[in-house]
Amino acid sequence: MKRRVVVVLLFAFMASMTMRGQLNGYKYIIVPKKFETFKSENQYMTSTMVKFLFTQKGFTPVYDDELPADLANNRCLGLLASLSDDSSMFSTKVTVILKDCQSIEVFRTREGKSKIKEYTAAYKDALEDAFGSFDGMDYAYVPKEKETNQPTEQPITVSYKDDVKKLEEKKEVPVVKQVATTETQSYESVEPKTSTYTKAEPQQKTETAAKVSGLLYAQPIENGYQLVDSTPKVVMKLMSTSVENVFLTDYQGNSGVVLQKDGKWFVEYSEGGEKKLKELNIKF
Known about the structure:
Blueprint: H1 2-24, E1 28-31, H2 46-56, E2 61-63, H3 69-73, E3 78-85, E4 92-99, E5 105-108, E6 112-114, H4 119-130, H5 145-149, H6 162-169, E7 176-180, E8 185-189, E9 210-221, E10 224-228, E11 234-240, E12 246-251, E13 254-261, E14 264-271, E15 274-283
Parallel strand pairs: 1-2, 1-3, 9-15
Antiparallel strand pairs: 3-4, 4-5, 4-6, 7-8, 9-10, 10-11, 11-12, 12-13, 13-14, 14-15
């Protein structure tokens, strides 16, 4: 009996290491904003939840309409996530499936289950259960051999100013060293400096955020809160996550996250491919 248990555990460990090796060769997880099994975009906040959970597990998830340049040029850098929904009237059952650029299945989670009646909360609960398949995987992206042996992208031709061209014609040392590729943009002056040159202190970058005017009151609801103004009107709903002071929300038709930072509340969302941050005045 003990021998059988050891064999089963060894097999599970080897299977886990094999799956880890399979996923480590992919840099991104592509999350559709509308899964095929649903009628509308981000229905029951499934896309937001899947992207959030992949981030928690150490992956780099991106929405299917916001692909970074390297993934847009090489679709095989990422795996496409999809949902298999076998829900019934009495329970919610979902499985997360990952396929490569040739639509070949690479990984499938266990079936996550929930008996919560409210749909949004039920899918959140079932997805969290399904994502337990990634526990202990310790994912870390490792470029495939073909990728590491590929030549780097050809630099984009950038013309210098007229005075720099004249220096080049005279075979003098150029005063500008510039690199411009699709992944690297740098500009460095190598012109000799006099000893009296003093370097200015760099200005500290500060993250600024537009502030949403008006006080919002947090009212407890099932699995989170709803924020209402003084009218009172429901401005947005906050769905609790496993992370303290981090909530999922739908802000002005965009999937987002409400979180607390330095004692203040912010809503972070993506609009037109651009990430935006707004401060919220919330009273709990």
